[in-house]
Amino acid sequence: MDCFDTAALAQFTKGQFGESVAGPAPERKGSMVSESTSELAADIAELKDMLQRAQRPAVREELQRVLTKLEAEQLKAKSSEAAPAATSDKVAPATVQATAPAVDVRPVGPWTEITTFALDLGGYNKPDVSIDLRLKGVEELPAESLTCDFKEDAFDLKIMGLDGKNHRFVRTNLEKDIVPAESSFRVKKNHVIITLRKAPHPRSR
């Protein structure tokens, strides 16, 4: 292959475009990236015209090298312009939130009195008394649907929204005092267990 002839390329470009090129076609640096695609297209068209007229192999090789570089920059510029448009066309997927079924939770009556229960006194030396209430499906209720208010001589259990009704189990004036802070209830499958902590020193009545 012939060596690149700077003088020949300068003479060629001077004859075609009326200006002299002092050396090999300058490479486009970072500033080329910021040029518009229309300017790049004009440069590419001009280089293609020069390439068609060039005769010397070294000149054609140099022109082809610069042309290839500009075409790559043009493709990159077009991709950069298309990216924002593609991003704006994206639509965020709709978010579907599951809605829990409504539960009838009413703070007041009318109440359905619970009359059936099992009582475990726990023996003389046992600290607790247990009461077992059998209520089908009670474990499926939200925790806030069940409340129990303990006092020294009474307790009041309320179950709201079970089978569309509000249920209540209340006992007052207990035979023995209890410790409200240490009494509790828990829910099991089809059961509510109330645990009453016996007071160590019952009050005189």
Summarize the structure.
With 205 residues, the chain is an alpha+beta fold. It is built from 3 helices and 8 strands.
Helix and strand pattern: HHHEEEEEEEE
CATH architecture group name of the largest domain: Sandwich
Beta strand count: 8
Profile the largest sheet: 4 strands, mixed
Taken together, the total number of domains comes to 2
What is the fold's blueprint, element by element?
Elements: H1 6-17, H2 37-53, H3 57-89, E1 111-113, E2 118-120, E3 128-134, E4 146-151, E5 154-162, E6 165-171, E7 184-188, E8 191-197
Parallel strand pairs: 1-6
Antiparallel strand pairs: 2-3, 3-8, 4-5, 5-6, 7-8
Helix pairs in contact: 2-3
Write up this protein.
By secondary structure, the protein is α+β, with helices and mostly antiparallel strands. It has helices spanning 6-17, 37-53, 57-89, and strands at 111-113, 118-120, 128-134, 146-151, 154-162, 165-171, 184-188, 191-197. The strands form two sheets. A four-stranded mixed sheet has the order 1-6-5-4, with no helix packed on it. Strands 2-3-8-7 form a four-stranded antiparallel sheet, with no helix packed on it. Helix 2 (37-53) runs antiparallel to helix 3.
